[in-house]
Amino acid sequence: MKRLLFFVLLAFGGGPARPEEPARLAAASPDGVRDIGSRLELLVDRYLIDRLTETQLKLHEPQLAPAMTEPADNLEYGTVIKDGDLFRLYTRDGRRAKFDGDQPEVTRYCESRDGIRWTKPRLGLHEIDGNKENNVILHEPPFCHNFSPLLDTRPGAPAGERFKALAGTVKTGLVAFVSGDGIHWRKLRPEPVITYTKEYAFDSQNVSFWSASEQCYVCYFRHFLDKKLRSVCRTTSKDFVVWTELVALKPNFPGEHLYTTLTHPYFRAPHLYVALPTRFHPGRGESTDILFMTARGDAPYDRTFREAFIRPGLDPERWGNRSNYAALNVVPTGPTEMSIYTTPFRRFVLRTDGFSSVHAGADAGEMLTHPLRFSGKELILNYATSAGGSLRVEAQDAEGKPLPGFTLADCRSLVGDAIEHKVTWAKGSDLSSLSGRTLRFRFAMQEADLFAIQFRAGP
What we know:
- The protein is mainly β.
- The protein folds into 2 domains: 34-60 and 357-456, Jelly Rolls (Sandwich), CATH 2.60.120.260; 63-353, Glycosyl hydrolase domain, family 43 (Tachylectin-2, Chain A, 5 Propeller), CATH 2.115.10.20.
- It has strands spanning 34-37, 41-42, 49-53, 55-59, 63-64, 79-83, 86-93, 106-112, 118-119, 136-138, 148-151, 163-169, 173-179, 186-187, 207-211, 216-225, 229-237, 247-248, 257-258, 264-266, 269-275, 278-281, 287-290, 293-296, 331-334, 337-342, 346-351, 356-360, 365-369, 372-374, 378-397, 417-422, 439-456.
- Strand 20 (264-266) and strand 21 (269-275) form a beta hairpin.
């Protein structure tokens, strides 16, 4: 078999399904067809998958990166925002606080150009310990306890409100803050924009973002489900001031506490929301670990993967309360790499798009998609094989009949590892004659992982 050159293209840039019931995913068209256009689609759920044969959806394990020689401040309800070529980090400093929301709590700000080496700018905004030579951007209890910023990507957002944030307690409600530069903040209005009175709420990180797919702001906040389990509610807004009626999402499995959700749009596919909730074990010394969930718009969270995504690990310090919180946002830190930051200040890495994959082992297997429509000219895959593995693709009509020229026999076998690789058949890679038609795609795999697919117009 002819070896393929390995290459990488730049890549910067309701309740859950119970074990006995299928997950409800983002709605297909009335005829059951997934219309994916030219979107990047990650294999993190069964949205595209009709049938798996000798293959499975596999959750991949983030790898702990070496300790940073120039770390940022310790993460406590942290947020990492990639703003162009600048990484911005926001974190609570509650080291001297006697209780949540106590007066000594402050919000600190750090910067980085690579997401690895960080600086703590001396901003001169707030006097702490007798001087202003510090990186504190907010000192207003109780809002420093869970101040959670976002970079507003809404078209037409005012320059002076390029950054927004929500913060507050059950007593104050969630108050909106805005900023033009991410450093100097003011309240959008003195009154809270979100209130909740049914159960205890808001005391952990409450996250929000502009959703391009839903065309509104979305907020996921913490509450107690049935006054028993830590869980999550959802609300939306067109203007970040007036929010819709709150909906309890109930993503918990029986007896499961979800302390935070950290839900945010994935940076390469913003229609797909990624969540890295803290799973809290009050009966096991209040230990915690980090899960992986996804959502598509206003559909419930998908719970395809029930096991821990990031375990506490070998360090005994990670086996106590508040020891395993992820920071908000998965961010790209290289052409083939994305990073997840966790307490106290650790960095975990995954390959780009590499949360999970359709995986085939030593035995040959297949994935068959649901009927779908696409727009574009080429099929691009994020995939990896062993030296002895392979992956091929076949295009079929809606009834499952292979299309001449696009059969498995016509497909040039993929052997290698690439973030973006074009599929080629005997007559070439041009799929424009199939664009807009209802098709199925069959992936034949052996010792291979398929992470994501995308149809594109061309180079």
